[in-house]
Amino acid sequence: MQIKSIEELKKIREKSMKKVMLREHGQEDADQIEVLVGMATCGIASGARETLNAIVDEVSKEGLENVKVIQVGCIGHCHSEPIVQVNMPGQKPILYGKVNSQKGREIVQKHIKGGNPLKEFIIDATFDRA
Amino acid sequence: MNQFRMNVMVCGGTGCMASDSDKVIQNFEKLIKEYEYDKEVQIVKTGCFGFCEQGPIVKIEPDNVFYVRVHPEDVEEIVKEHIIKGRKVDRLLYQEPIKHEKIEQHKKMPFYKKQLRIALRNCGLINPEDIYEYIAFGGYEALGKVITSMTPMEVIETVKKSGLRGRGGGGFPTGLKWEYTRKFDSNTKYIICNADEGDPGAFMDRSILEGDPHSVIEAMAIGGYAIGAEEGIVYIRAEYPLAIERLSIAIRQARELGLLGKNIFGSDFHFNIRLKYGAGAFVCGEETALINSVEGKRGEPRNKPPYPAEKGYWDRPTCVNNVETFANIPPIILKGSDWFSSIGTENSKGTKVFALAGKVNNVGLVEVPMGTTLREIIYDVGGGIVGNHKFKAVQTGGPSGGVITEKDLDTPIDYEHLMEIGSMMGSGGMIVMDETNCMVNIAKFYLEFIMEESCGRCTPCRIGTKRLHEFLSKITKGKATMEDLDALKQLSYMIKDGSLCGLGQTAPNPVLSTLEYFWDEYLAHVKDKHCPTGECKVLAKYSISKEKCVGCTACAKVCPVDCISGKVKETHVIDQSRCIKCGACFDACNFNAVIKP
B309 and B162, same structural domain? Predict the structure, then answer.
């Protein structure tokens, strides 16, 4: 395919962005929304990998550029695995429990995109989160 | 297209490849497939990260974890621990050499903290063999902007205003060069990329071509548009096979997408690039010699003027720019000349890439704003001197430059300041020497290089450098007289004044600058027949200290000529007449009893 205008170049750029987006985010730390997915043994056993992939997929579909999805170790609430923590800049982190892939997609849609946390899935954590 | 959730970036630069990074990549690909993660995890072979000392480098995104010295057998642990379980592999994290802290994010490492990467912006970030990754990071947008919305003169003005100067070493203002070449009227003009990197210790051009070839291609097209050339030539040394391969792939991809060829971006601008292999002669980095070589003649320089801007390749107006210079062009076009000129010092704008080598902890490729001091480069970025030795000197600018000593370490680096302290920017090779390096020997090393690389066209350079080398050999063998030292100095000035091109004119620089700063060391060689560092083997005299020797026999065991005698638990003695000065006993002794020199 030949690029014949700057608009065509930009279209190709947008398409290619998705492929390298993860890296762009790794480079910049400012104003990032972080989505942490617990991927310790217990998390993986209860399906965290599917959740993680669903979240990555949803973030990419929506083209959310300031979201970084990171797999982390044990978050500490094994009874509620898979666990997803959402860190919005300037807000207290929110911890979700029993997040299957369907719920993962909802978190992206309603919380990250819409700004409304899904109250019913929040774990009532007593620790002062990092 | 698959959506990957994780990228494993493995360095594919020559340095890391030499320490098996291709095997690391193969192992990753194999294991990721075995564990059926190949649809979620992408392995990317990148260009040089610059941290060559710590190679092979593996960076994992988006976690932003930077693993160093990853051997093929470490891959399984990274896959099982990090990729599958999300746990960091602690032992492969970088350990800071001074405080011994483990650091996982590359931005927090002192090596990267003081760096600002413009020319190297994509090295280590993208897959150089995939044009779409370059486009994703804004690639070819500068070319599009230039062709569709700027006149050639506006392009030249932007480059002029940015203050960009030639990164090959001379430091000539790039925009001015473009303007001169544009000024001369001709139907055919050429733009040449000088990728003949010959300085001992320099490898920035190679790394840029290996890690981000499209940035050079894009910039050449921009330059072609600005000066009115439709043909670009990359003169690249044949010793750079990986750079040649990646460049060829990149040119092919650019042609396929119509970014090279006819009617680029639908305009009436045509531009194409071809490669010309050089045989790797140092003098061919000089532009007139380079042009001769591209024409198929011997790589010999000629007098200037006429400058290539008027009469270059086949006597047509030709613009020759260095690889690193080109790599700076697209960001200047996209971000503007004000942005670029806000970085650096008054007369030297932007950044400079240095190849840091020699006796520093973090050997590698670094890019810092102009005006950074040598001390910052050596101690902060470079992590200080290996083995807690004492800093002695740093050679900048390769053979054409000179040595810089402790007293000038706080000089901010730019074209002018380096000239002031008797050295030069050159291509940016930076070789650090410690107290164990003999400066006469260093001068001899450079002169040997120069002597072999002289094209032979003019007598002062052809014969003069050979004589200089002979004098230096005599000194290091303890056979020279004070008259020889005088002759050495006089000859140096004669070669400087009488040579035809930059190679000869700068050839004596290593001699003159070491004579100036390390006169004592020359004197010791000539008068006392003694090499203070012990590096000159012929002058070295190894002996054993009676007080310190415990009679462990370690030295006698390693001596290849059995010239060390002595019984167990008694002092040993070296037979000077038979000693071959190999230094094996010095290395073997655990009690510092062997005295050198």
Answer: yes
